[in-house]
Structures are given as structure tokens and as C-alpha cells.
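Minutes, methods subgroup
Present: GH (chair), OT, SY

1. OT presented the first of two proteins processed in the latest run. Sequence and C-alpha cells recorded below as shown on screen.
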Amino acid sequence: MSKYIEIYNEIVSNIENGNLEVDSKLPSEAQLMDKYSVSRDTIRKSLNLLEQNGYIQKSKGKGSFVLDINKFNFPVSGIRSFKELIESMGKEVITSVEELSLRAPSKKTMAKLELSNEDHVWKIVRVRKIDGERIILDKDYFNARFVPTLTLEVCKDSIYKYIEGELGLKISYAKKEITVQQATEEDKKYLDLGRDNMVVVVKSYTYLEDRSLFQYTESRHRTDKFKFVDFARR
């Protein structure tokens, strides 16, 4: 086995066993070279592999820091409300509604929701705090033709439960786009990003049973807290 793999495995074991705590700083490259009696190139190979596999974050001029490897599974396929998803994880969650407004759509929103000049949209901005950390920023836009009323209480609980239970609409399918983007000032304001300056953005276009596009969502996630999973069959 290559020496850099042996060093990688030892550090991984220390992280997974809790000997190296989340956010703790690894020894410097020089210190690791002395500890393992290897070259700088060997240490850098180990550190690069640790970063590629999500165990550490290297920060230029500051060092390497241990990441939280206990990530939440976020299903790519299927349509589930955040409340349904988080209840299946058994986690404590607090939803903070930062904005709830009924407005004329911007040109950008008109294009995404295929709206006319006469249409209005609900804009809802919510921050999801899981186990005390703000890790998701949700920005939802609903066509008011399909969702004529919304309340703060509904937004704190489950909009999908309200739409299907109270309005009697059938949510059918969604198209999703997943990208990794530079964190914006808004992300930094609402999320506990720490040293991370990237977010995973999930854009969803959700349709009713009659193929009507009624919702556009931009859900912005901390990169260190989620892994995006799917099930595929040939």
C-alpha cells in the first residue's frame, strides 16, 4: 500500500472515531512530514485525497480543517415537503419565515413560472435550522392563481400539506436542477456558513396533476451538511 494511502487511512480513522473533532485544525504539512517521516509531496497527496472525499477543507494560508462527516440524505428524485423529509430523519428543526409577500412578479419570475402580466405570486423566504444550525435557505414562489391565500402559520408548518389538504390540489411532479455556487451576501446573512464560501443550490419547478406549473423554488444548502442521493434502476 502506498504511504500516502496509509496516512490517509489513519487520519480518516481518527476523524470517524472522533479523535479529531469537527472544525479542529490538522497539523501543518511540515509537522505531518516529521510525524510520518515522508516527503511534502506524500503529505499533499494524503491531504488532497482527504479533501476530495469530504473529510477536510483546505484553506489557503490557514491550514486544513476537519469537516462534519455526518451529513443528511437529501433525495434528488421524488417530491416531499421539507417537513416530511426532516420528520423521516428524526431531527429537531425550526423554520423561520423571513418574508411572506404577495406581489406582481419580476420579469425573471414571470419567465420561470410562465406567468402573464395579470398574475401575482407569493414569495416566501424561509430559513431552516436543524439541531441549532442554520443550514438551508428556501426561496419559494407560488402562482397566486393556484394558491390564492397563505398565512405565516402555514409557511412555518407545511405549505404542501395546506395545498393538498385545504385547497384540494394534487401535486404531481417536479423538474430539478442542482448546482454548486459561490455563496451570496444573502446566504452569508441567513446561513451559518463558517469558513465555507460555497452552497449547493437546488432549483425546482413543480407541477400539478393537470401539468400546471404552480411553484418555483430555489433551495440553498450548506455543502457540509448534505449528500444528495438517488435510486436508479436499469
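2. SY then presented the second protein from the same run.
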Amino acid sequence: MTRIELSVTGQAPPERADAARNRRKILDAASRLVREQGPQAVTMNAVAHAAGMGVGTVYRRFGDASQLFLALLDDSEQRFQQAFLSGPPPLGPGAPAAERLRAFLHALADRIVEQREIMQLAEAASPSARYSSGVYAMLFAHTSMLLREARPEADTAMLAHLLLAPFVPSLFEHLTMRRGMTSERIKAGIDDLLGVAHDVSQDPVRPVDGAS
């Protein structure tokens, strides 16, 4: 079985140690504000206060709040990619492909639930940009690779797109905030979806209702 080796995308060039520490402090402070008070609480002044540094440092590092939001998404995306590319199984290498796919989709659901509000800001700004982004390319490549190992007989490119289609913040907003569904229920639905896809592949020809 041919295995595609992927690498983490979007990694920033090396920084001086003090610059890297400041970046980490700012991102951690902004992440806490989003988690505790929502993205509307993230102003450059608020982040500077939470990080214990001057607001000028925050502006010099990120420019404005929109750039800070993008940096937050990029930072969490790099951590997520590292986890599924080189972390422990079943999310990382070492587990069967079907188990890795299940763990990957569960982790992706957790990531969207956790950062739904920030992701919605990006989605609202440019809904179609998702499919031309490096992040989506990485998710698609990883999903396709696992599907090729688990289901070599399937149209894995199409199936990868269809499996990733529900993983958008607007749907998770609807499910969690408007319908009151928990992350556990969403993951159970993902498991059902994977099971249905497998069952259909085992019995591809099914008569329609009323057919003999």
C-alpha cells in the first residue's frame, strides 16, 4: 500500500526566543479571552492586559484584531496537524486506517466546537475560500489517504469531500447552539455516518421501495 507522507502546513519561519515567547503569551491570552468571554472580547488592549505586556507590543506583532484571529486559527491548526500526522495513535500513525479516520473526524469535530466562533468570522468573510485554502487541502489529503487504505475500492476523492462537507462552523453552530446537541451526540452521528458508508459499500445494489 502506497503511503503519502504529509507535513504540517503554514509553519512560520524560526523566531528569536524572546519574540517566540511574546507570540506564545499573546496567543494564549487571546485564546483565554475567546474561551471565557467570546471573540467580541478580543481587543488589542484586552489581549495586552491579559498577556501582561504593552499594547504596542501586541500591535507590532499582529497589526490588528483580525490578524490576531487568523493567527489563533493558524496556531491551533498547526497543533491539530501535528497531532494527526505524528502524534500518538489512534489519531496519529500506528493504528488501522479506519480507526485513524474515526479519531481524525472526532478530533476535527472537537476543534470546530472549541473554535466555532472564530471560524465563523472567517467563514462569513469568504465562504468559498475554505476550498482553496491550504488547511482544507491538508484535511482533504489526509482523509483521502486514510480512505485509500481503508476502502481502496471506493471513489476516495469524492468520499473525502463528502465526509468533510459537514465540518463547517455554521452547521456546528446550528447543532450545538440552536438544537442543543452535545459534542458526544455529534460524534455518535459521525460514527453512524461512517457505519452507513461502510454498509452501503458492502451491498451497493439495493432495490428502491416497491421494486421487485
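Chair's summary of item 2: The chain has two domains: 19-63, 70-201.
Next meeting: continue with the remaining queue.
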